[in-house]
Each structure stands twice: as structure tokens, then as C-alpha cells.
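Session log. Operator J.P. requested a structure for one protein chain; no other inputs attached. Running the standard single-chain path with C-alpha cell output.
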Amino acid sequence: MAEQQEQAAADAMMTRIGQVVMLHRGGDREEARDRFLDLWAEIGEDGDPLHRCTLAHYMADTQDDPSDELAWDLRALSAAEELSDDRVAEHHQSLAVRAFYPSLHLNLAADYVKLGRSEAARSHLSRARGSVDVLGDDDYGDGIRAGIGRLELRLEEEGLSGGAPEPAPGRGKGPGGETLGPPRRRP
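Structure written below.
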């Protein structure tokens, strides 16, 4: 009985995180950021790693400052490293922790590009590329692979020009206006 109540509470938190994600996707970035912060306070620094990973992953997208975005993406990666496949399977049977890493590392690479830290970006991009084989042959996997390709191209162009290119207009946008990072999967 206690185990069922604990599972229901865990699912409720993932539902609440998902509701805030939808709020953000609906265009209310500031309200989403405030609600994510409230949920983060509830979860706590030592709370369920799945909750922390999911929330931090999406919270990064609500940040105005690239340094803050990086800090949230690092929190997501740290929480993922504490996750077990059993815990992830409790949320969704088809998920495995290793499938989180391509997206997490791609996001970190994109953060480092925004901050002008090419070597750190290349390191995380290499990790993303090295873990992409766990992704399915679906829209999400294709989106991650395309994001890796775009960012690799951007870093290659940067290397040829000898310096960091001017950021494209708009937060987190590539040279053609496309999003640098991967698509975010719904929790």
C-alpha cells in the first residue's frame, strides 16, 4: 500500500512538471520558470533524481542568461548520473537512462557554444555523438541527430574562421535561425 502511494506521488510530480512544460511551450516563459522554481524547492537538491533531471532539463530552456542555462543543464546531467534504469522504467517501461545522454550532452554543447567555450562544446558534442546509437529511429532520435549535425557544422565553421562567429539573432539559434539544441521530449 505504501509503495503504491509513493508511486502515485512520483507520477503526480512528473505530471506537474509536464504541465509546466506545456505552459512554457504555450509561450509563458516567465511563469513557467517561476513554477519550475517552486517545484524545484519541493523536490529539493536531494530529491528523486528522475524529477530533478526532468525538471532541470526543461528549466534550462526558460533561462535568459546562457550561464544560468548551463547551470540547469549541468544539474540535469548530474541527476541523470544518479538514475537507475529501474527508476526510469517505473515512469515509462520503454525508457532507459542511457537514452537521456545524447540530449543532455547536446544541450551542454549548445550552452558552451553560446558562452564561446568551443573546446567544452566539442567535448560534450563528442559525448552526444558517441551515445546517439541508443536512440530510436523516430522523430525524437532524428531531431537529436540533426541537432548534433547542426552543432558540429557550426563548430567546424568556427574552426575554419579562426574565431567564434557572431551569435545569430534570437536565443539559442544557429546560423540559419534553427534551434541549436535537441527537441525536448515530454516528461
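Operator note: Confidence is low (pLDDT under 50) at residues 1-5, 164-182.
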